[in-house]
Design a protein that fits this description.
The chain is mainly alpha-helical. It has 2 domains: 44 residues, Arc Repressor Mutant, subunit A, CATH 1.10.10.60; 132 residues, Orthogonal Bundle (Tetracycline Repressor, domain 2), CATH 1.10.357. It contains 10 helices and no strands.
């Protein structure tokens, strides 16, 4: 691995253990075995490093949604939604311990929100899932009149809630929940 990859991996570890709020760039650089100056050669700030952790070290929710959008016809609606829900559960379970501390202070949340580039906020999974659902509607597997934005929010909200419960209880609900969510969403869409 190169220094950038080492820093992202160390950031994921430190942020999981300490949360975003308490993970300092100095501690991350030390955990990776590099100087803080080198960290800043790769990342402009801790928010950029956090975004790298989300996209490179956690289950690829965006990549799964994009793949399913391009290849929706390759599997059934239920299989696709189960895969999507499973990835969302994994993503939220992995990211919850990291990102929850952003809400520990209004100032930290405000600073983090201001540092985010457009297109990197927590609304992006909704946009990606809604885009995938639109592909399913174009295939005729979801009614054209369905509220795809609401469906995306329902699916991801349920996944987020389950991830919260799993994190709180230190459990892993597994793939059965993903299948149940997919079946329920399909029933609601019809």
């Amino acid at each position: 691995m190169g220094s950038r990859q080492d820093l992202v991996a160390a950031a994921a570890k430190v942020m999981r253990e300490q949360g975003y709020a308490h993970a300092t760039t100095k501690a991350i650089a030390q955990a990776a075995g590099y100087s803080e100056a080198l960290l800043y050669k790769h990342f402009r700030d801790k928010t950029a490093l956090f975004l790298a952790v989300l996209s490179e070290e956690l289950p690829a929710l965006g990549a799964t949604a994009a793949h399913l959008t391009r290849h929706a016809a390759d599997a059934s609606l239920e299989q696709n939604l189960t895969e999507l829900a499973g990835t969302a559960l994994e993503f939220y379970r992995a990211s919850f311990p990291i990102s929850v501390s952003i809400f520990s202070s209004r100032d930290l949340l405000r600073t983090h929100r201001a540092a985010l580039d457009t297109g990197h906020g927590p609304d992006q999974p909704i946009v990606l899932v809604e885009t995938y659902l639109r592909a399913e509607a174009e295939l005729g597997r979801i009614p054209a009149h369905a509220d795809l934005g609401a469906a995306a929010r329902l699916l991801l909200g349920a996944c987020f809630q389950q991830a919260f419960l799993d994190s709180f209880e230190d459990t892993d609900s597994g793939t059965a929940v993903a299948a149940r969510l997919a079946k329920t969403l399909i029933a609601g869409l019809r």
